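Field reference: sequence -> structure
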Amino acid sequence: MHVIPAVDVRGGRTVRLRQGDYARETMYDAEPSELVRSHAGSGARRIHIVDLDAARGKPDADSRDAVRRAVEVAAEAGCEAQVGGGVRTAKDARNWLDAGAVRVVLGSVAVADPEVARRICEAHPGRVLLALDIRDGAVLTEGWTRSAAGDVGTLLAAWSEWRSDGVVYTNTARDGMLGGPDLDGLQRCRAAFGGPVTLSGGVRDVADVVAAAAGADGVIAGRAVLEGKLDLRSAIESLAVRR
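Structure field:
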């Protein structure tokens, strides 16, 4: 299982939101590319990079440039960058993969326009992750600002037929809250999807990472790493010992 640090970018800066609320933002001093370099030095092999401006349909040139530089630094350090936020077209996906991202993350388009998303998966097999963002049982899109109609199980069953690299499952009510991950939701997602699932949201410490390892193929940690509550190297080493 991979421990995957998150780098969220807004206005070109490193930030974290609480429960996806853009009004509850914490800004950090480290530049996104500096953070990527630090995570690589701590042993991370994958890094989750999100353009929050693009995610809610308000692209920002500073954010785009910061994400691009972060992807470049990840490649230089031998890390696999997975980029999300505003990837809604085949061109968007191709541009980030050409820029050095190893994977792209599809969120809104995988829900609202599944045929487009399926074709992106077909064009780049094994290089596309599908984001399932949940709050109170509803699927969220547009940077977690809108709810989508439809059944989660039906959506996951459809996704399971695509040539993706798996699902990123986030219970958005837990994201950025340091209250522990949604392990029950993880198990339901895995059962419905039947393929690899990465867990995101609420991770506090090494114990949460170890608990997630029982059902997840990866776990994404953001605020806990940024604020020193989760030592990235220790988390990675703890999993290596348990193999």
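Note: The two ends are 9 Å apart (CA to CA).
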